[in-house]
Specification:
mainly alpha; 7 helices; transport; monoatomic cation transmembrane transporter activity; NaCa_Exmemb
Length: 156
């Protein structure tokens, strides 16, 4: 029941923060990468910490990856099926923005590098890798926040 209440409160907090982001005219990408992503993971965090403290660290680590992957696959799958059904029999055209491609590249790099580092460290996550991932996240956030300005700068 406590996980339910934490998830409910996190959802309400997300709605409030999304409204504040709209009022403050923050780009949706920044809101999605920071506040909304963090708030959406609070329930998973509580469940994974409870599992780890209960003596099930492997299940907790699997939950760190499996929970968001399941949410993304089911969420995107459901949304795309509904959208495709709405335009049937025509084909649904999926448009890619440069920001989406960059986000996928950053995600792919971080996941592949994590796989390599954790494998080389005998399936333990070194402290330095946490700092590297935070640095990559900050770099990605800065790149996304200033992408409109960077695109307008003359290149030479």
């Amino acid at each position: 029941m406590s996980v339910f209440w934490i998830s409910t409160m996190a959802g309400e907090l997300l709605n409030c923060l999304a409204a504040i982001g709209v009022i403050m005219d923050l780009p949706p990408a920044i809101l999605g990468m920071t506040v909304l992503a963090w708030g959406n993971s609070v329930g998973d965090l509580v469940a994974d910490v409870a599992l780890a403290k209960n003596g099930q660290p492997t299940i907790a680590i699997a939950g760190c990856f499996a929970g968001p992957m399941f949410n993304m696959l089911v969420g995107l799958g459901t949304a795309l099926v509904m959208q495709t059904a709405g335009v049937y029999p025509k084909a649904f055209v999926l448009e890619f923005h440069v920001g989406i491609v960059v986000a996928f590249v950053f995600l792919l790099l971080s996941l592949m590098a994590t796989l390599l580092v954790v494998t080389w460290a005998r399936f333990r996550v070194p402290r330095f890798w946490g700092y590297c991932l935070m640095g990559l996240y900050i770099l990605f956030t800065i790149r996304t926040k200033y992408s409109d300005i960077i695109c307008l700068l003359p290149l030479g």
